[in-house]
Every structure is written in C-alpha cells, then in structure tokens.
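This part of the workshop introduces the protein records we will be handling. Backbone structure tokens are a discrete shorthand for how the chain folds in space. Once this layout is familiar, the rest of the handout is easier to follow. The record below serves as our worked example for the rest of this section.
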Amino acid sequence: MAVVLYFFADPESDRVRSDLRLLAAQQPALKEQSATILGISPAKQPALKQLQRDLELPFPLLTDDRKFSLAYGVGTDSEETEAEPALMLVDRRQRIAWQANPATSVDEALAELEKVLAGLPSPISNYPRSVINRLVTRFVS
C-alpha cells in the first residue's frame, strides 16, 4: 500500500482546510489505487482532533514534533516559520515516489499523484511496512 502524506502547519488556515476537504473527496479514488492518506502537522493533538471532527475527515491527522517533517525535507525547525503545505507519495517500497513541496495547488497535485499511482506496480502485501506505521501510534481518532 502506498501512503499519501499531506504536511501542513496551521490547522486553522483556510488553505489547509480547503486542501483537506479535497483530499477527503479523493480518498475513495486513492483507496481504489491502494493508497491511504495521512495528514501530518506540528499542531497539538486536541486541535487536530477538532479539525478532523469539524471536516469529517476519513483519514487520520497525526501530530509531529517537526522531526518527521524535517526528515522528509518539509519546513524548518523554527516554530516561528510556517511551512507551505506539501504532498508526498511514499510507495510500497518505502521510497518517495512523488512530491509537491511546496504544494502550490492540491487539485493539480492530486491529478499528478493519480498518474504516478496508476504507474506503480501491484502491492505485494496489503500491509504498509514503512516508517509511517510508527506514526500511527499517534493516530488522532
């Protein structure tokens, strides 16, 4: 299974909320292509839980102390600097298969992402064995 990572900073941002709605609308199509979505933010869990409830998101939002984001080349380690949202596709082999960093338009990025997913080989297993799974323990329900 491939994993679509959406990195964002401010859960109150209109841009972020719009992007998350677009991702939620595309979730069924991505699932058909054996991809799942994870939202990742340095925001605190209560804020992310509230955002997930408000937008009725069908995918988890995970809190990150910025180490994970920095490891993927997103943002800075300064809490004063707001990073632009970024989208990445981690393939079944745990490699970054595609990225839009920063994601200027999630709509356009999703179209490109679907092309990349269409070209990925069939999953060997239904279980994603990647570093992303370690973050699921921080799952925001």
Notes: The first strand starts at residue 2 and ends at 7. Residues 74 and 86 are 7 Å apart (CA to CA). Confidence is low (pLDDT under 50) at residues 122-130, 137-141. The beta strands are 2-7, 35-41, 61-63, 86-90, 96-100.
